[in-house]
Amino acid sequence: MRTYNRITILGHMTRDPETLASNNGWCKMGLTTNSGWGEKSKPQHHSITVFDDKKTDFIMKYIKKGMIVFVAGEVQYNKGNDDKWYTSIVVGNFDSAVELCEKKSGGDPYVSTSNFQAVPQNQIDDDDIPF
C-alpha cells in the first residue's frame, strides 16, 4: 500500500518571509493557525521552508507579515545540532502550493454587498412564474 505525506493549512503570517543565505531561490516563513473556539482557542505556530524558485519569487514579492496565506506541502521532522527534534512544512516543486488569501478591505468579508431585494410572497402572481 502507498503512503502519502501531505499537509494543508490556512493561517496568518507571523513575520515577513526571508530568503535563505545558502540559496536565493529558497525562503523561510512562519504561519500561525488557531485550534479550538472562542476563549479555548489555542494558537499553533508552523515553520515553513520553500524550495522552489518561482514560489519564492512570488512569496518575497507579495506576501508580508499579517497576511492570510494557504500552504500545501509535506511534513518533515529533523534532528537539530542540539539533539532536539524540529517539525517543519516543506514546500517543493511538485504537489505543493502557496497562495495569498487576503480578505476584502473594509466590512465583513462574508456579507454580500449586492442590492438584492426580496419580493414578499403575497405579491407574486402565477403569471410571473416562467414555468
How would you briefly describe this protein structure?
This protein is mainly β and 131 residues long. The protein has 1 helix and 7 strands; from the N terminus they run E-E-E-E-H-E-E-E. The protein has one domain (7-105): Beta Barrel (OB fold (Dihydrolipoamide Acetyltransferase, E2P)).
Task: Describe how the helices and strands are arranged.
Blueprint: E1 7-13, E2 18-20, E3 23-35, E4 42-50, H1 53-62, E5 68-79, E6 85-91, E7 97-100
Parallel strand pairs: 4-6
Antiparallel strand pairs: 1-3, 1-5, 2-3, 3-4, 5-6, 5-7
* Helix/sheet category: mainly beta
Sequence stretches where pLDDT stays below 50 over 5 or more residues: 107-119
* Largest pleated sheet: 5 strands, mixed, barrel
Q: At the fourth CATH level, what is the homologous superfamily? A: Nucleic acid-binding proteins
- The helicity comes to under 10%
Strand content: 35-45%
CATH topology name? OB fold (Dihydrolipoamide Acetyltransferase, E2P)
Q: Give Rg in angstroms.
A: 22 Å
Q: Per the principal axes of the C-alpha atoms, what is the gross shape?
A: globular
- Terminal CA distance reads 53 Å
Total separate domains: 1
In spatial order, strands of the major sheet run 1-3-4-6-5
| H/E element order | EEEEHEEE
CATH structural architecture: Beta Barrel
Mean pLDDT: 82
